[in-house]
């Protein structure tokens, strides 16, 4: 049923009334920063009532209005990209009503017309972000911005769209946010909200608090030198500079009073006194705490591991340095992980040679299964990547302190000027050992569906947590992926504000190699069979991962928007049976 274009996937999405009216566009297509009032007692905030203007476009020169089609041109459940002369919009007809929003996903610019429309929202075909068609608001991630919404009117059977030219050009809208009321009164060593970690989870938490009208102090701290950046790009486009992959510009943090302390490491958390103790001795009190510290990559434990030019890719500097050292030289990558494979693909045309060492017999075997793994391996081999499988590194040899050779347990010796290690990671939670916060045997922070730990007021999110996944009967899982970190951050923020919001999102991830993407939805852990439709040799396929008779995950290559379609079916709480896809 997933292949039939005629089948419309129906999903009910109910938007709370307050969300619906919360946002009005300002003329520049960004949300106008409003002043927020404190409502009586401390720490209770609400958005100031603001009447919706009958004409939200203050500058008539910035407005364009155009007739885009006849009313009968679109059937219910159809989308069309329409041109207004100075930019495009996405026109949608659902339940007899027309809506118009931005036509590009604000995350990486995917054409939303190729996405999936179902009951009030459109899902991006590339990475699964979801937008409400009535408001343009982002409802699932990745990405931070919403879509601009345009006015639609019907006159004499014709559909007209009225839009701000700037919004048509930027194709994104930042949600309205509160500011901090009185930064000057603050004691430097206390904050209302402290966020440890500045990845997607930490940033989305801070932004969500401000979007919800929270106007007290927010401090984020990170061991990184940089403001939050797009970490998946470190292995996918390795020569990106920090400014190019920043998730928000510096001014953004100033405008919305989100303080970021860089190169600051928390050494311990004292939950009794609600205090974080930093490595340099500095202490900060908090009222609410989010721990979003992510992972620490595993190092090699072999002889010679301290040799120069052996890297874990953790920062933009690491990635840039590897590209520089690898150009026209010999590269050895240890571990056919997502990171290892993406780095191999990126360096294949730049390096003299790329060799990949892996313990399993095919890459991605545990994640994508043997057949998909083999097809991917073939694609790599045809791009000059050499695999050394079912072996590991026994020694790194140096010459004048720098890496010269990688010796494998099989006895093979590989020439190497640079080595990248991608053998997995462990949660960065060592500093919580004595804190009383519950951590499982693998080091993951255990949270409930509201992202709460066992300690009141302490939340955790992102790669370092296990949480109950609705999709798999609330089994506690760790999902160390970009989209999920965003959603964790949002849920944690809403629950810091006592919204009682539970997580129910469906995991969605992607990997990109040699200009091709594999998209994946669900949680395939423990799958016992794979049903493949399409052609693996041509790299045009869909793989359904099943456990007994249920489809638990789906991966695809060159088959959009199948994975986004499946995501909508799973998000609606429906089960896909093995017999449906065989």
Automatic annotation (TrEMBL):
Residues 66-161 form the Rieske domain. Keywords: 2Fe-2S, Apoptosis, Electron transport, FAD, Flavoprotein, Iron, Iron-sulfur, Metal-binding, Mitochondrion, Oxidoreductase, Transport. GO terms for molecular function: 2 iron, 2 sulfur cluster binding; metal ion binding; oxidoreductase activity, acting on NAD(P)H. GO terms for cellular component: mitochondrion. One of its GO terms (biological process) is execution phase of apoptosis. CDD domains: Rieske_AIFL_N. InterPro entries: FAD-oxidoreductase/Apoptosis, FAD/NAD-bd_sf, FAD/NAD-binding_dom, FAD/NAD-linked_Rdtase_dimer_sf, Reductase_C, Rieske_2Fe-2S, Rieske_2Fe-2S_sf. Its main location: mitochondrion. SUPFAM superfamilies: FAD/NAD(P)-binding domain, FAD/NAD-linked reductases, dimerisation (C-terminal) domain, ISP domain. It is found in: Mitochondrion. It comes from the Eukaryota. Belongs to the FAD-dependent oxidoreductase family. Induces apoptosis through a caspase dependent pathway. Reduces mitochondrial membrane potential. This is Apoptosis-inducing factor 3. The gene is Aifm3.
